[in-house]
Structure formats: structure tokens, C-alpha cells
Design goal:
The chain is of the alpha/beta class. It has 16 helices and 13 strands. Bound molecules: uridine-diphosphate-N-acetylglucosamine and uridine-5'-diphosphate.
Length: about 375
């Protein structure tokens, strides 16, 4: 059996590697070694618990208010020991976080092949999203196998001169995870959410955490949500707050006193999936949420200037609106007031996957390691 290390550190990575870990566990040719950098703590542990994943090693690097450089240094300092101990045949990294960039470079220094899951996303602007656009480009430079979620992401890689032979279009494992989760019954652990959902109250779901939105853009987002909460007292505004104190300091004071605003701790993943199903409208700067909410046909207004996930924008369910207060208020109001505008955006689309991304990824990794063959590609 070839040993495949799956290295991850944050909430979205944990969600997106879980289906791959399960598929590796079922493989006859490959066996997983699960390693967490612990870039996130509570938000990562929540996800591991839901998917019943127990890391074989945890670098436990998270510190409150960590800077990019100290976080990077801790990962590079602690990972080599785990690589030496487990001696994997390949290491999978997923996405675009500090864990990904530093993990990939460390493996390259150790001459271990890197597999990049969710490869080829590009916004075209190295400063936005920051530092994620650079992280995925850096990882791509030392990658032996690029697992692209869509044909568009494959084309981004080919346009950069990457050998087509080391790129496979597999779909995004976010949809595998979503399918697995969405079919299970779930109730909100928060009493207010449970009651409001049961009453069928109209709900707007908000998440924000992006580094390039820190400061003024995030203050604008908060002011816009406050204005919307005042304008639509019958609508509930739900904010599952990212653990990052920089986010909380800006958003909480602006919205916390409205009776129709509910601020909660990060929701367990199945509860957040449930919240997306309940929501009438989603306001977000998250990458993963841009991929998930469209499959429930929920209009998504993206609080960013650009996106590396243009597929759902093209499909019409996602709209990029930036962070200007007035624009957010106008765009959200239009969807809440105008049934026709709402209907035009609320199409259930799945441009990011068909639920078989993990299976295709395992086959492609097996081929890379000489113990199997690829299967059909995802055609989205
Ligand atoms: C990170 C990723 C970002 C990803 C996001 C997903 C980088 C540079 N950023 O951003 O790409 O979209 O995760 O959520 O890799 N914290 C906790 N508990 C937790 C998690 C975070 O307390 O479980 C707090 C800590 O104070 C920590 C801070 O949040 O220092 C920031 O965490 P960090 O991983 O550096 O950045 P994020 O903004 O979460
Ligand atoms: N999510 C969650 N609980 C929450 C908010 C989000 O489980 O309270 C999930 C969501 O379903 C998605 C992922 O977290 O799969 C997105 O993570 P995040 O927005 O932190 O990071 P990004 O995707 O922007 O990198």
C-alpha cells in the first residue's frame, strides 16, 4: 500500500479533505495518514468531529491573532519531523491557506510529491484574495499532480504552461461533503434559531472573514447589514461569527442590538448547511459558501471585488457586489423586495461537482504513484 498524507489546517480544508480521507480509507492501493497543522483549533475540531476524522498527528500551531509569517514559520518548523516519521509517498494539500503554501514548499524541500486538491483557481490579482491567490500559485509551482475542480480551473493551469499530463479535472470535494451531510437530519443547537427556523421566518445569512476586507470594507459590510436589519424588521439576519477577533471587533458593535439579528458562534458544519437551506439570501465573502449555496438555489451576494470561482456567477446564482455599504443595501433590498429579480437568481446549480470528486482524486493519485489508473473526468 502506498501511503498518502493528507495535510490540512483550517475549517474549509477539513470539510473538503474529509471525503478524500474516507475514499482513501476504502482504497485497496492507497492508505491515508491524516495530519492537521492546527492552523485553526475550535473551527477545525468541529469539522473533524462531524466527519469522524482523527488526525494521526497535529502540529497545533494556532496562536490567537497569529501573523502570516509566524504561522508560516511554525508550520515549516514542525512539519519536517512528521514527514520523517511517516515517510509518505505523496502529500495532499487542499486549497489556498498558509497550511497549503508552507506544507507544499516543505514537502518539496523533502522531495515528496505534492498533490494539490482544488488546483487552478485564479482571481488574476495576486493581492486579492490576499494571501490566498499567492498561496495557490506558490503551491502550484511545486505540485506533481493538480486536481482541478472544473474545466475552467484546468484551463487556468494550462494557460500558465503546466503540463496537461499532470492535471486531472475531478470536481470539488465540497459537493461530496455537502451531499453526504445534507441528507442527514439536523436541528440547530441554538434555541432561537431552532424556533425561528420552525416558524419559517425569512432569513438572510451573513458570513465574512476575508483578510482583504479587514478594516474599512468590513465596517461597511457591518453598516450595510445594520441598515438592512432596520429596513426589514420582519426578516431575521443570522451571523455565525468567525472566531477571528479582528472580524468580531468590527461587526459585533454595529449589529448586535437589533432584535432581528442573531449572532452565534461558528455553526457546526451540518447546522450551517441547514442554515443555507433555510436562508432566503446569502451575503458572504467566503469561498466555500460561494460553492455550496448555489446548489440549494440560494442567491448569493459576494462581498468581494473579484472571485476565483466564476462558475456560479456565470450560472447566474452568484453576484459579485463588492463591499460598498450602499451597493450591499441596494442589491439585498432588490432581492428581498422584487420577486422577479429573486426568481432570476434562485436557480439550483452545481457547477462545482457531482459528488464524485474524492473517487476521481483517489484514482488520479493511484496513477501518480503507479498503482492504478485515472477514471472519467468531471465535465463541469
Ligand atoms: C484562514 C485562511 C483563509 C481561509 C480561512 C477559513 C490563511 C492565511 N487564511 O483565515 O484562507 O479562508 O482560514 O476560515 O491561511 N481563530 C480561533 N479559533 C479557530 C480559528 C481561528 O480562535 O478555530 C482565530 C485566532 O485568533 C487566529 C485567527 O482566528 O489567530 C486567524 O486565523 P488564521 O487561520 O490565521 O486566519 P483566518 O482569517 O481564519
Ligand atoms: N461553515 C461552517 N460553519 C459556519 C460557517 C461556515 O461549517 O458557521 C462552513 C461552510 O459550510 C463552508 C466552509 O465553512 O463549507 C467555509 O469556510 P470559511 O468561510 O471559513 O472559509 P473559505 O471557504 O472562505 O476559505
Amino acid at each position: 500500500m502506498k501511503k498518502v498524507m493528507v495535510l490540512y489546517g483550517t475549517r474549509p480544508e477539513a470539510i473538503k479533505v474529509a471525503p478524500l480521507i474516507k475514499a482513501l480509507e476504502e482504497s485497496d492501493a492507497l492508505t491515508p495518514v491524516v495530519v492537521s497543522t492546527g492552523q485553526h483549533r475550535e473551527m477545525l475540531d468541529q469539522v473533524n468531529k462531524w466527519f469522524v476524522v482523527e488526525p494521526d498527528a497535529d502540529l497545533d500551531v494556532m496562536k490567537p491573532g497569529q501573523s502570516l509569517t509566524e504561522l508560516s514559520a511554525r508550520i515549516m518548523e514542525r512539519l519536517p519531523q512528521v514527514l520523517d516519521e511517516h515517510r509518505p509517498d505523496a502529500v495532499v494539500v487542499q486549497g489556498d491557506t498558509t497550511t497549503v503554501a508552507m506544507g507544499a514548499i516543505t514537502c518539496f524541500y523533502k522531495e515528496i510529491p505534492v498533490v494539490h486538491l482544488e488546483a487552478g483557481l485564479r482571481s488574476g490579482n495576486i493581492y486579492s484574495p490576499f494571501p490566498e491567490e499567492a498561496n495557490r500559485r506558490l503551491a502550484g509551482q511545486v505540485t506533481a499532480l493538480h486536481l482541478a475542480p472544473t474545466t475552467m480551473s484546468r484551463d487556468n493551469l494550462l494557460a500558465e504552461g503546466i503540463d496537461p499530463g499532470i492535471v486531472a479535472v475531478v470536481g470539488n470535494t465540497v459537493i461530496d461533503a455537502l451531499n453526504w451531510t445534507a441528507e442527514k437530519p439536523v436541528e440547530f443547537s441554538d434555541q432561537r434559531l431552532r424556533d425561528e427556523a420552525a416558524a419559517g421566518r425569512d432569513m438572510v445569512l451573513l458570513t465574512t472573514h476575508r483578510r482583504e476586507n479587514w478594516g474599512e470594507p468590513m465596517a461597511d459590510i457591518a453598516a450595510a447589514v445594520a441598515e438592512l436589519a432596520a429596513r426589514y424588521p420582519e426578516t431575521l439576519f443570522v451571523f455565525p461569527a468567525h472566531k477571528n477577533p479582528t472580524v468580531r471587533e468590527v461587526i459585533f458593535p454595529a449589529i448586535k442590538d437589533f432584535p432581528n439579528v442573531v449572532i452565534v458562534e461558528p455553526l457546526d458544519y451540518p447546522e450551517f448547511v441547514h442554515a443555507q437551506k433555510w436562508a432566503k439570501l446569502v451575503l458572504t465573502d467566503s469561498g466555500g459558501v460561494q460553492e455550496e449555496a448555489p446548489s440549494f438555489g440560494k442567491p448569493v451576494l459576494v462581498l468581494r471585488e473579484n472571485t476565483e470561482r466564476p462558475e456560479a456567477v456565470t450560472a447566474g446564482t452568484v453576484k459579485l457586489i463588492g463591499t460598498a455599504r450602499q451597493t450591499i443595501v441596494d442589491e439585498a433590498s432588490r432581492l428581498l423586495d422584487d420577486a422577479e429579480a429573486y426568481a432570476a437568481m434562485s436557480n439550483a446549480v452545481n457547477p462545482y461537482g457531482d459528488g464524485r470528486a474524492a473517487e476521481r482524486s483517489v484514482a488520479a493519485i493511484a496513477e501518480l504513484l503507479g498503482v492504478g489508473q485515472r477514471i472519467d473526468e468531471f465535465e463541469g
